[in-house]
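Example record for the data management plan.
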Amino acid sequence: MTVGLEFEGEFAHLTLNRPEVLNALSFSVLKEVSEALARVADSDARALVITGAGEKAFCAGADIAELMNRKLMDELDGAAMGQAVFDQIADLKIPSIAVIHGYAFGGGLELALSCTFRVATERARMGLPEVKLGLIPGYGGTQRLPRLVGEGRALDMIMSGRTVAAEEGLQTGLVNRIDSEGTPFEMGKRFLEPILKHSLCALYFAREAVQRGGRVSLADGLRLERDLSTLSYRTDDAAEGLDAFLSKRTPTFKDC
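Corresponding structural encoding:
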């Protein structure tokens, strides 16, 4: 299998397992990723950690050999497939994190951008180099990157095709943290563990308010926040959290 999936406690761990080709995303790998994500969505996992096998790369991007000599509709279908798979990650009800150790280029960075969070090791190198091939990103990079780092920084990366080191990624908001202690899976767990102390319902509502609100006007975003905030009050976890606060005890959330 070129995509591994394991469950450890409240974590699902998805691994891209083609280290001999820097974990490149062939279409068959994308299909396996999609199938693994469906299993994660149907599981009791409360978070997803995505890593790449080997020491050199998280994911170096698309399998270039597969992109040659295709018909127009095949190219369109390929982009639609990549976007659909990465939408599966973005649409998960649980938080996800990509641990970028080594290279994350093209489709590899676009995969990471679809996650809720990104952690990079000090030797991580990231970029969207498609312009160097006479192309542009097709798996969501032109849409997710500017929403994360701003239009100016996104255009700089996309139109130059340049490589970004971990420290610059941290400064621009491309990554949330730089970490080099332990395995990539341990880095992902360490980032998410404090977050997972909270109700998954509240985490989901908060993420929806921020991400969906960023795509609409301030007035519409405020209405969205109002509605999701009101909805959060209707959960059992909200009742537990409020009671625990008044009782001066630690809440026991059940994710509902």
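Summary line stored alongside the record: The first strand starts at residue 3 and ends at 8.
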